[in-house]
Fold these 4 entries.
Entry 1:
Amino acid sequence: MNAPTVILSTNQTHRLHHAFFIPVGEIKATLLIVHGMSEHGGRYAKFAQFLADNGILVATYDQLGHGQTAKDESELGFFDEKHPVQTLCKDVIVVANALKNQANLLTKNQPNTKIPHFIMGHSMGSFIVRTVLVHHATSFDGAILMGTGNSFGTLNTLSMGYLAVQNKLNPKKKNLLLASVVNHHLLGQITYPISHSPFAWLSENLQNIQTFENDSLCGFVFTNNGFFTLNQFIKKATSAHWYAHLPNDFGVLLVSGKDDPVGNMGQDIVDLQENLINIGKNCTVRLYPNMRHEPLHETDNQRVYQDIIHWLNVNMKIC
């Protein structure tokens, strides 16, 4: 693992903290991982190393308002005051290009080798990736969407106008009320919470919940700007527009816990696959019983690891 280059955000003020996970032998493909809300790229290190051990060059990074990209605690949960959606989308392409450059450097002794490029987004990251693919699908050979959803729900609809006002009045203020409402809404769909944690909806794995809570760079409250931006992404990503122009041979893998409230307990994932297949797209689903929002952190995560590397290997051959 290393991060030999400086990657500057398109806001021109933040360095995007990142890491490359480099295979020892032949590089078969690349994967860019776009993390979720109130977490950071470091949570994907074990998974990224597994992929690197299987020939995949991986990049993780901390988005604006997250992890070590945030300059201090006050920036956590705040994206960009002027153009947050555009900035976050452009940052995805900036990091993707840095990953491709790294692949080119490392494969200069692999003559006549085409390196397929894949992207993965989890939760908030999945909605960002879907928005990016509207205009940049040709930059990648396939996408993995994990912990995603397929509807702009009542809570999102009701909060949009309120958040638009709050984002103008006080964009950097932490919105404790909405954070509480969101967690309560997600927890309300879980039949058997395994702890009293407000983050019990994340996982069936109690240790994962405890680790998340003990991480000072996880679980922070979003600002008005953060929630407003997130809602914009969800609205864009749950419209049919995001996949209408995907190439038919563009592979999509949907990965979700069957008990993930973000995916409407699996139903959104089934619906999304049906939407994609109905217009001739190449879509595969892996829906895991007894898993919640974070399949990569469940006790049986090796099953998820193996399914993802299998999908990558199959789709490399198609590219």
Entry 2:
Amino acid sequence: MEMLDQNSENGDKVFGDYVAKKCLAEDKSTRSWLAEQASVGRMVLIEELKPEAGQEKDSFLADVRAKAAVEHPLVGSIYEASTENGQCFFAHELLPGESLLERRAVGEKVRAQRFVHILRRIAEANIYHESHDNASSPLDLDAVYVDGHGVIRVKNLVISGNRLPDHSLRDVLKLGADFEAMLDRDQPGATRCLTLLAWMRGEEVAKPLRWEQIRDYCEQIEQQLAEPSEVVAPPTAAMRPEKKSGFVWIVAILLVVLIASVLVLTKKEKPAKANAPKPGLVSVEGGRYTTPGGASIKVGGFRISAYEVTIGEYAEFLGTLEVLSDEGEDRTFDHPDQPQEKVGHDPDDWVALYSAAKAAEEWNEREVEVNMPIVGVDWWDAFAYAKWKRSTLPTQERWLAALVSGAEVPSAIPVSEWIPVTSKSEDRTTNGILGMAGSVSEWTLEARPLPSNPLGDSLWVIVGGSYLKPGKGAATREWVEDRSLRRPDLGFRICKDTH
């Protein structure tokens, strides 16, 4: 084998642009290496197929192709594969932080709110695999990494072939058993977490939970623990798995109706416009779409908010941060790259804006109210809010797909003023998405290169016209270098995966 290998001047094993530093693991067919990519100076992992296992080359490369097709922010990336110079290997991302297995080994305990957040993110990654029919190797705690900022990533366990029906069940059962030891049982919310884990194992329910159910229950518990409730809830409030009897469901529904009735009768009546119902999420089918500029884009199915996040909704987010700050966790939702000098997520002139909005008075010579889109926020603020809502910002591609899915001629959508999202605005698509041509411009999730300079640096994309900068209406796009940019006509909306 050694005569097939290239070697560096220091005698290190070399795989193309990658210099191996340490062999981490080895089995009959493969070796795993910690390596440095020389051209960019980053550490990566190398999976090498041993020359003596050459008969497995086709299956090895088939697995690599399957892994490389995965595009999900939670799942580790594949950088490249090579079969040159007698070597067969692929390079992939070295996930930051330590695995849950390593953390469990040193006795680390996780508080309930963080526990269900980790569990929800694992569920989201697996829902993606289910929706894309990705076969996968078994999921263990050594596949889930958490870094010092609390960012969660999952190893790319995808393999070639079709996903079998028992892949999800296999992983749900194992995680339900293995993760329990890390729960801090002395903190609020632990009972709810233990109940959820038991349901994952199939205890006291007709069958073990599905990944979608796990995600939904985790969202409920996170919300209960993050936001003080006006109703004292039992340990597993709002968590009702499928049981063998429907009687429990009937009792639960009656109880919810009763509580809701009491709250309605005891609350003071608020102004009608502050309580007017807002449209929900709009589903956009996956497929290929042609943008207003004529480019062809392909997206998976997703759901996007029918309106930009409002002043009132953003105020709720800031209220949650105030609660978390008492425990020193007010940076829970920050992006890991957020500048350290950025403290908090208050929009520009927030005190004056929110005070005027609550009273339906003037701010910056315009009458404002709480149902109008939030403005004066930067990308970091928008990202944190979306994370709090267990959502993301839409990518440029998703935003454009949502636009053209409901507008044959996007330029025909009239540009609106900065108005409440519950207004009967003409600035809407046929599928009910408001404010894409006007009201406020919006941040998107990821940087993209300028169409006029596709080989240049990627910049952050702002989409849609605004009441101050109508541009080309819904076809308007801007590319900016600074994610800390704030403007009185710049807000955002959120989106979620379909599953």
Entry 3:
Amino acid sequence: MVLPYRTLSFAYRALASFVILLGIARVSGLWTATPTWSAFLYYTVLSNVLCLVWMVWSAVYTVRDAQRKGWDGFSTPSARGAAAVMMAITVTMLIYLFVLAPGLFTQPGAYEPFTLTDNLVHIITPVLVIVDWLLFVPKGRLVWYDPILWATIPYSYLAFAFIYSALGGRFAGGTTVPYPFMNVETNGLGGVVLWIAGLTVALLAVGYLFYGLDRVLTRARPRTYRA
């Protein structure tokens, strides 16, 4: 089921873009005299940036379609792209809620979980993107192997983080890895591999849940919007 109202989808995407930008600005201090540029080395912030770019693009795309086709109907740059972005930010939310926060995760410095800033980048942005997919993105466009393709986004980040560290790069506070489960020194190589394997299974499981939901919503939509 898709809400065929470009006025509503544009307003939602414009507002969501502002909220996502706010979260990025707060977590990185962009609106201060001394921004924390190292924040952009973390998957959390990079996935939020991806969501911001996608949401702004979706809003612009919606306006462009409205000028050509009118304000009734739905618009998205790509249904499969929207799902990929949704999965990328869902990873951020799930790892935060089920891996980092429960383990009393602490980053270098005065880090407190579930602050407004934390909630913006880890919870509110993912929810905004998921709601956009549910309400404004046409269903039935996904294919069975899409969840596997979606996994390339967090895996690309893992590759970047490990290569960056191996080349001498350091994350906030001088740490060699961005997240504790990636630390070979404390977890051992086998421990890190197990962590990544477990997270991969969970990631694919959630991905196929989204794929299954897409199938269910496809069958539930009105015939008028079958295409």
Entry 4:
Amino acid sequence: MSDKLIDLTVTDYLDVLKSDAPAPGGGSVSALAGAEGAGLLMMAADLTIGKEKYKDFEEACKAAKPVLAEAVDILTKGIDRDTEAFNMVMAAFGMPKETDEEKAARKAAIQAGTIASTEAPLANMRAAVTALEAAEKMNGSFNPNCLSDFGVGVLNLKLCVQGAHMNVMINTPGIKDEETAAKYNAEAAELAAHGAEIADRLYEDTMKKF
């Protein structure tokens, strides 16, 4: 079986997810949801571009595609990045702590892993919010047969933002540098609020069109 989550079949991934293994967890699931959400928006764009019937929408979809493609890439990598960061922390806690040198090395490794475990979901939040901003520019300017796909994409991106936010919040208390922890929490809170506002507005607008 591959060491990378993204290389697993869906059934193998779910088998690992539902097992007693502590990772993958909510962080990786949030990243996957975001990648799926941005992917659905790309699909809506692709099913619009090149269609004579929707030529008036083509510019908006073409503009959104590279932004969404970058988000898919970041979030896809984020699936494993989140789990790898968690594993760093677990490995650090298992380090020896008999001597002062060992204790210092262990403490530093725990901090490095905790910071990585905070930065991973924060990067996923940034990517998902960027994708939501692209979705906002696409809104009303894509193949209407993709309306439900667009809506599901938005919901998945909102899940990503909110799920990743929780993963930031659960890790920052373990960061000893209070200024660094506060910086991460402030950025995450701002991204969460901005992402939710866009997603909720797009969801409401989508539901009115059915």
